[in-house]
Amino acid sequence: MSALTREETEALIKEVLEVYPEKAQKDRAKHLAVNDQSIEQSKKCITSNRKSLPGVMTIRGCAYAGSKGVVWGPIKDMIHISHGPVGCGQYSRAGRRNYYVGVTGVNTFGTMNFTSDFQEKDIVFGGDKKLAKIINEIEGLFPLHKGISVQSECPIGLIGDDIEAVSKKGAAEIDKPVVPVRCEGFRGVSQSLGHHIANDSIRDWVFSRDGKDVKGEFVPGPYDVSIIGDYNIGGDAWSSRILLEEMGLRVVAQWSGDGTLSEIELTPKVKLNLIHCYRSMNYIARHMEEKYSIPWIEYNFFGPTKIAESLRAIAAHFDDTIKEGAERVIAKYQPMVDAVIAKYRTRLEGKRVMLYVGGLRPRHVIGSYEDLGMEVVGTGYEFGHNDDYDRTIKEMGNATLLYDDVTGFEFEEFVKKVKPDLIGSGIKEKYIFQKMGVPFRQMHSWDYSGPYHGYDGFAIFARDMDMTINNPCWKILTPPWQKKPEAEEVAKAA
Amino acid sequence: MANIMIRRGAAGEYVFYLPKRDLEDTITSMEFDQADKWGGEIKLNNGGAYYVDPMPAPPKLPISVRARRMDAAE
């Protein structure tokens, strides 16, 4: 099926919206748009970061998910207490596959679940005493931890516990930072506010320590950079880091995949902040620009075209040795990239993809698909804001679909009509679309694969897309009694 | 009154950022942009206008300031 025209896409949106009651129709219409590259300001065509409608299926998370699951969780040498009932911590435990090195339970705690396990009596009488006890218990059981963060779940805000006071007292007792994070799940419309709250808590509670947790003396160098907003999903940050180090830069900090507390405290001393996930960490980058005069740039390490562009853009902030380094890195990996493209492009050329993910991926991975000759025909953010869509409009082709906080029903209908060859979305969509016979990749944590960043990641990305789209299983989804008679004849003859 | 941040863009232009609305836009004109006076009425690329109390000298950018909305484009 060839690409839809602008009129066809508009008609499709209208048709999908018809089933809603009038009020819901009006609201949802604002969140669905046909891309028009001539528009400069996304808010002229799409509304985002609004409360989801009751009664429709959304796949958004909560502020706690944004803070504990995304920003704080991957910091490996701190212990993150899920303060409140037990479920929130258990169901956000290690699902995101933020890889790290270290001995879990001794000096790193990434995949463990620490919770205050609220019971009725804690709701009635308050949980402050319990929190104070937990802080001391942690210090006794895990003496090598570097600090504690208290990630509030909904009840904490509802019953009005004073976690700040307990944290301050606890920090003085154990002589390590204890960071209270007011990321109760009911705050904001999605996990996006949780990112912001977590960024603010790093600013207020970690930067204020002025590098107290850094062992030894730190000697600033002229080529210091930090990787911000890379959560090391399946090893992403590592495959990004080696490229930067090969071109001559020194990566001081990783935020926050495989990151440590001292790395974060050292970040105000770097020369340039490199932002991968703009949505979750632009707040802290803007703060560091204002307070410490550290410039920041956004970069994109998905697919060779974007990697080369980004490496050159990063190098432009430094002197000639780094610029030469960037060219050297690009030249070094070019044969590998050519081999990957030669192998997979013929198998993937012209395939059409629909994406619906969060954070940076709805726009960042487009380059990767295009390098393989594929086309992204629809994209959308779970929790993007206006500035995300501003950046997306230029990346997407004209007359392609844009959908913000798409509902389960809308997404299914779009897929039925657009008939893409591949869908990239989350685990909640995966089995619906696979049962519909559409190849699917879970793009939140790379479907248990990865890394996808960097040149090494591109090879894995290409292999994964090929093995999903060209998997023979999609041909045997039709049961025998529904097969057309001609096909049977052919099978018998063969 | 709104808290805004003004910074330099890649091409040296002023960039306006309103965190509450995630509004990021280039500034097309600023009333006072001289060595002895900085601020005043700010016009944005999207048609909006804000007022920042003039400062005696251009500040170190980026800077967070309080601004009054004069005319917002929606």
Summarize this entry quickly.
The complex is a heterodimer of chains A (494) and B (74). Chain A is α/β, with parallel strands linked by helices.
Can you give a write-up of this model?
The complex is a heterodimer of chains A (494) and B (74). Chain A is an alpha/beta fold and 494 residues long. Chain A folds into 3 domains: 1-60 and 349-448, Nitrogenase molybdenum iron protein domain (Rossmann fold, 3-Layer(aba) Sandwich), CATH 3.40.50.1980; 64-188 and 190-209, Rossmann fold; 224-329, Nitrogenase molybdenum iron protein domain (Rossmann fold, 3-Layer(aba) Sandwich). Chain A has helices at residues 6-17, 22-29, 63-72, 86-91, 120-125, 128-141, 154-159, 163-174, 191-206, 236-246, 261-266, 278-292, 304-315, 320-348, 361-364, 366-371, 386-395, 408-418, 427-435, 454-469, 485-493, and strands spanning 32-34, 78-83, 114-115, 147-152, 178-181, 224-230, 250-256, 272-275, 296-298, 352-355, 375-379, 401-403, 422-425, 440-442. Chain A is globular, with a radius of gyration of 24 Å. Chain B has a single domain (2-71), classed as NifT/FixU-like (OB fold (Dihydrolipoamide Acetyltransferase, E2P)). Chain B has 74 residues and is mainly β. In chain B, a hairpin with a 4-residue loop joins strand 4 (38-44) and strand 5. At the A-B interface, helix 12 and helix 17 of A face strand 3 of B.
Topology:
The complex is a heterodimer of chains A (494) and B (74).
Chain A: H1 6-17, H2 22-29, E1 32-34, H3 63-72, E2 78-83, H4 86-91, E3 114-115, H5 120-125, H6 128-141, E4 147-152, H7 154-159, H8 163-174, E5 178-181, H9 191-206, E6 224-230, H10 236-246, E7 250-256, H11 261-266, E8 272-275, H12 278-292, E9 296-298, H13 304-315, H14 320-348, E10 352-355, H15 361-364, H16 366-371, E11 375-379, H17 386-395, E12 401-403, H18 408-418, E13 422-425, H19 427-435, E14 440-442, H20 454-469, H21 485-493
Parallel strand pairs in A: 2-3, 2-4, 4-5, 6-7, 6-8, 8-9, 10-11, 10-13, 11-12, 13-14
Antiparallel strand pairs in A: 1-12
Helix pairs in contact in A: 1-18, 3-9, 6-8, 9-12, 10-20, 13-14, 14-20
Chain B: E1 2-8, E2 14-18, E3 23-33, E4 38-44, E5 49-55, E6 63-71
Antiparallel strand pairs in B: 1-2, 1-6, 2-3, 3-4, 4-5, 5-6
